[in-house]
Amino acid sequence: MGALARAIMAYLRRLASWLWQSWDAFWFTPESPTLLGLLRIATGGMLLYTHAVWGLRLKDFFGPQSWLSPSLVRGLQANSYAYSFWWVVPEPALGVAHAICLLIFALFLIGFATRITSILALAAAISYAHRTPASLFGLDQINIMLALYLAVGPSGDAISFDAFLRKRRGRAPRGPSVAANAAYRLIQTHMCVIYFFAGISKLQGPSWWSGEAMWLAFANREYQTLDMTWLAWHPWLIDAMTLTTLVWEISFCVLVWKPLLRPLVLVGAVALHAGIGLCLGMWTFAIIMLVGCASFLPPGLIDAWALKAVAWVRAREAPHVVVRA
């Protein structure tokens, strides 16, 4: 028994050591911020576009006589910690406040004073969402999730106006950091949670068990942008698409961490979300989900592509050398 106990204790020590090393490598391995800069540009662009749309009916959304009255929204949020700066903006200043928010989103997009503008962009996006809770959809939730983790990480360290200013001042560019890796890991983990719960929640719907779910989506004329009703004559294909969607979403959180399988999982993400955009017209949602999935791209590969792009641009800009005989 003594030998068995010693063997078990030795195994447990090795297991604990392996778990700690894996945890340390997962969260604390320095990574390049280049991919984080690309994610910031994509997220900032989506924030700017989606919030600019509010300006088309600004008073109807945020004014004292808005579609969702202030008293109604405050009643819905009575037992929550929801806060929005829109509560303190008087009606004559709605346009000014909206313009300031759009400016913040634009500055975040280009990476100017990113440490500050990232936090302001996050606060602004949350304020819009809390003032109009009935208009909060998956797109807004993913926007805010990405803005949060980009504010946590050094999203202005690369491909940004901040990086350009550092270069002009003769400072060395900022390289790999633990903070950049932490931002990637937070986005990646959150994407896994989103897909897993999206998958298992579908199991509560009978149409996903019967295989009709994809058909019900394609046949809904409210969202139909591409006529897919020809699938009615191919029920086996509808069943296969329904089952594939379920399996992909539920298994994403496991398979995406396997380097050999990750390309296939990400190709599946492109196919799924491109289909949502093409067939159901929800392109903004499809794009922002793919932005989140892009966090799984290898930062080293992105750096290599960036170097090739810079070399190509410099080669194009180089003056032609004229050789005289």
Q: What would you note in describing this structure?
A:
By secondary structure, this protein is mostly helical. It folds into two domains: 32-158, no CATH class; 180-310, no CATH class. Helices cover 68% and strands 0% of the residues. The chain contains 15 helices and no strands. It has helices at residues 2-28, 34-52, 58-62, 70-76, 94-110, 114-131, 138-152, 161-168, 178-202, 206-210, 213-218, 235-255, 262-280, 283-293, 299-317. Helix 2 runs antiparallel to helix 5 (94-110) and helix 6 (114-131) runs antiparallel to helix 7 (138-152). The longest helix is centred in the first third of the chain and has 27 residues, at 2-28.
